[in-house]
């Protein structure tokens, strides 16, 4: 009789987690086929070189055993349709890594868990992306991404108890203003105590105007006739911007030679 036939795949109507765990552990220690189902799930679903990954898959199996939505035995959870790898209970296993996996399975039956996985009951191959909004990832181990399915409790508390952050006011509002003089004094005091972002901007400093005999002499000095317009511009550079005179030599070179007029004498 196969391990799937020894376990019922129907979930009970109600289940107490601690009692369900105790019954599953007792059954696994009494029936070696229950432990084999746990070993097979860890063998085919996780990277066998990762102890954290093997422990994570075993934690998910035991979390499902304790849940009322899944069967109450290990073989019932592992053999449920379309939940674990295809042929997880029938495919052959090599003897090379079985001792390590069996030792981790014994630790799981004794109460050891992957703390990062926590109460997660779902995982998929790491690197895949899904558009569902109810998948809350907790850790990645052994080539699998473990996640909680549904709304997080802390998010529900945030919706019920919203937290608002208000800007602090430095000073309370003043009494109503009575006269124009008091208004002017209050406004000047408010500007003096206002934050820097609201304070009036100081006026830009102005350079003093120089008006002396030396300045007027330099300003009104006549410009030499051969000096460029820009005092800082060299004379050669200023002449470089002057357009060259137009000549007809290039145009004459392109035109054909003139033909002699009729009736003229051409000397040989």
Automatic annotation (TrEMBL):
GO terms for molecular function: hydrolase activity. InterPro entries: Cell_wall_hydrolase_SleB, SleB_dom1. Residues 50-147 form the Cell wall hydrolase SleB domain. Keywords: Hydrolase. Residues 1-21 are annotated as: Disordered. Gene3D superfamilies: Cell wall hydrolase SleB, domain 1 (1.10.10.2520). This is Cell wall hydrolase. The lineage of its organism: Bacteria, Pseudomonadati, Pseudomonadota, Alphaproteobacteria, Hyphomicrobiales.
């Amino acid at each position: 009789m196969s391990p799937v036939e020894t376990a019922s795949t129907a979930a009970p109507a109600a289940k107490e987690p601690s009692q369900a765990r105790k019954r599953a552990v007792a059954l696994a220690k009494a029936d070696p086929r229950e432990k084999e189902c746990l070993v097979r799930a860890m063998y085919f679903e996780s990277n066998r070189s990762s102890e954290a990954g093997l422990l994570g898959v075993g934690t998910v199996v035991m979390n499902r055993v304790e849940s009322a939505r899944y069967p109450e035995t290990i073989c019932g959870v592992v053999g449920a349709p379309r939940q674990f790898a295809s042929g997880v209970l029938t495919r052959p296993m090599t003897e090379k890594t079985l001792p390590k996996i069996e030792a981790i399975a014994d630790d799981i039956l004794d109460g050891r868990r992957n703390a990062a996985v926590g109460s997660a009951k779902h995982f998929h191959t790491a690197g895949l992306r899904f558009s569902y909004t109810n998948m809350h990832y907790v850790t990645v181990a052994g080539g699998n991404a473990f996640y909680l399915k549904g709304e997080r409790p802390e998010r529900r508390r945030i919706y019920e108890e919203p937290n608002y952050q208000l800007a602090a006011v430095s000073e309370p509002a003043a009494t109503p203003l009575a006269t124009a003089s008091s208004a002017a004094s209050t406004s000047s005091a408010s500007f003096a105590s206002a934050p820097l972002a609201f304070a009036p901007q100081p006026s830009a400093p102005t350079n003093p105007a120089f008006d002396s005999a030396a300045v007027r002499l330099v300003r009104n000095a006549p410009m030499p006739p051969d000096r460029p317009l820009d005092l800082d511009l060299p004379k050669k550079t200023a002449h470089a911007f002057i357009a060259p005179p137009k000549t007809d030599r290039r145009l004459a070179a392109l035109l054909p030679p003139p033909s002699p007029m009729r009736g003229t004498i051409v000397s040989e």
